[in-house]
Amino acid sequence: MKTARKRVLIADCHEEVLIALERMLEDAGFDTSTAWTGRDALGLLQSKVFDLVLINKYLPDTECGDIFKTLEQTGAGIPGIVLQPRTPESTELEALRAVGACDVVCQYAYPQIVEIVAGWLGGGKMGAAQVA
Questions:
Q1: What is the DSSP annotation of 41-94?
Q2: Quick count: other Cβ atoms within 10 Å of Cβ 78?
Q3: CA angle, 78 as apex, 77 and 79 as ends, to 5°?
Q4: Which residues 6+ apart lie within 8 Å of 93 measured at CB?
Q5: Which of 30, 55, 61, 94 has its CA 20 to 30 A from that of 79?
Q6: What pLDDT, on a 0 to 100 scale, did the predictor assign at position 127?
Q7: What is the pLDDT of residue 70?
Q8: pTM attached to this predicted model
Q9: Calculated CA dihedral for residues 35, 47, 116, 60, nearest 10 degrees
Q10: Residues 6+ positions from 56 with CB-CB distance below 8 Å
């Protein structure tokens, strides 16, 4: 019997980030959906079931905290990882975790992002342990 692949939503307004993460996560064994805007991401969250969400901290039309509120309201316990242009400072980690992020990572650290996603989901081809 074939096991269902874990589903990841990627919300980022940078085309190169969306394409790179989509390809790398698909290659790692995950199903992906992409959104250019927060509004698109919120729409996808209402119409599909996801196992994890990757959210650009600086989406032009939505605060990432609004997306975390939506995730919390679903009650599904979907982890959300914030993507930002550089490695996060410890104070940023604390602030973003306070609004619901399970992790924060540089949006250009593609292999690290794939590893973190695999760790949180324990799926894909990697089967990594959960990354704290």
A1: HHHHHHHS--SEEEEETT-SSS-HHHHHHHHHHHTS---EEEEESSPPPHHHHH
A2: 20
A3: 110
A4: 104
A5: 61
A6: 36
A7: 85
A8: 0.86
A9: 30
A10: 11, 12, 13, 14, 17, 64, 82, 83, 84, 107
